[in-house]
Amino acid sequence: MGKRIVNALLTTAAVLAPTAIITMTTVLLPSPAVAQVTNPAIGTWSGNLPAGPGLSLVFHFAADSSGALTGTLDSPDQGATGIPLDEVTLTGDSLKVRINGLGVEYDAALSADSTKFAGEFRQGGMTLPLEITKGDVPARQPRPQEPTGPLPYDTEEVTFHNAAAGITLAATLTKPRSPGTHPAAVLVSGSGPQDRDESLMGHKPFLVLADHLTRNGIAVLRYDDRGVAASEGDFATATTADFVTDALAATEYLRGRPDIDADGVGLIGHSEGGLVAPAAAAQSGGVAWIVLLAGPGVPGEEILLAQIEKISRASGASEEMIARSLATQRRVHDVLRADDDEATTARHLREVLRSAIDSASAAERAAIGSSDAQINAYTDAQIRQVTSPWFRNFLRYDPRPSLEAVRVPVLALNGSLDLQVAPEQNLPEIEAALERAGNGDVAVHELAGLNHLFQPATLGAPAEYASIEETFSPTALSMISEWIAARFRH
Q1: Domains of the chain
Q2: Cα–Cα distance between 325 and 331 in angstroms, integer?
Q3: How far apart are CA 340 and CA 319, in angstroms?
Q4: Is 100 left (phi over 0), alpha (psi -120 to 50) or beta?
Q5: 117-165: per-residue pLDDT in tens?
Q6: How many Å separate Cα 277 from the centre of its chain?
Q7: Residue 307 has pLDDT above 60, yes or no
Q8: Of 7, 41, 303, 437, which sits 20 to 30 A from 18 (CA to CA)?
Q9: Is the bond preceding 150 in cis, omega lying within 30 degrees of 0?
Q10: Burial class (CB in 10 A: 0-12, 13-18, 19+), 149
């Protein structure tokens, strides 16, 4: 969900799927001057991979103190930067790039004028042509819905403190200029490390949502996740329960401001934020309402299996491959559910993954690599992902008990083409849990033709997100603002 799209192990469902990427912030730069002169590969190279609607890739090649090539890869459309390259060599005019943990291989030839590499990009059994050109990274695609000045509302950069975690979070508060106090929304992002705009796939959904709401009389606080951008804390060790304390701290900050209606502060949670919002509302009387955007209604394990199947099928994976991926994923879940010590869990996971590799097709095995070092790098990356505190918690977390404790007004929206949090799997469970709560103010809507980001889509596959010009459906935006205004705007 969000950036953290969890794909089946050993599947070709997506190229460079966000959850498979370990994001870093440092881009390696060329060091020795002599290497810059003698090695024509050094520099920035960019191209477009013809996967789905296209996926932009940017390679940064540098040299270490010995002159050997090093480098990183960016996937701007997926919001991923600084993916380390395990191997990069240029022998004559032949380039070889490997990212072992992702099963990525790129082999290409340098043009005669040293301005272009043309070759084949391979991952997960797929082979695609990829041509990269030396030079500056292409400018970010314009997004017409993003606001430009002058703005008809006030913007304030603020911080608030989470006493439970002992951290300070950085945020932007947008406020209507009309006199008096205003209802306010706290925006809670989806999974993965997110900035205050929930920037992903070349879009800034929370920036667009905040702009719309504030123009319609509703103040909005959007914040950088803990450990992201200007916020303190450690994202890597946090779970959904930790994010609940962040959202509650944001709520209390707004309730303490004289320009905000203390009785009209609510939470808008997207994807994993749709787990955070009801949990926060169940814990605190300070949350006056919640909006769930593609929020989960069943345990994480069920969501992940459905996500794997739907995204894999939309991405063209065979039914045999989907069945094998689901079987492997279920075995992984069984190992994690056993709650063994760390070493035993890792050993059992390695056995599951090795078995899956042994039964994989030749193309899939080739994408991982045949050497022990390549296979170990792949399995190590998978084990790190599934044994993280967040993944373990998400796998078991059932949102229904929190939903059953929510007494405040609830609006739940989902797109009919959402492949990450399927509407048919989650909306009925959300509605049923709120009915058991005796909640008399609940609105649940499935919006036709929208994906997980609430964009108009064709298939709903994550590969489409970046190529869609629209960031957030105006229909969905209006539903949210009108629903809030009808209850809390003075």
Answers
A1: 18-134 (2.40.128), 153-299+397-488 (3.40.50.1820)
A2: 10
A3: 33
A4: alpha
A5: 999 998 766 778 899 999 876 667 789 999 999 999 999 999 999 999 9
A6: 18
A7: yes
A8: 41
A9: yes
A10: exposed
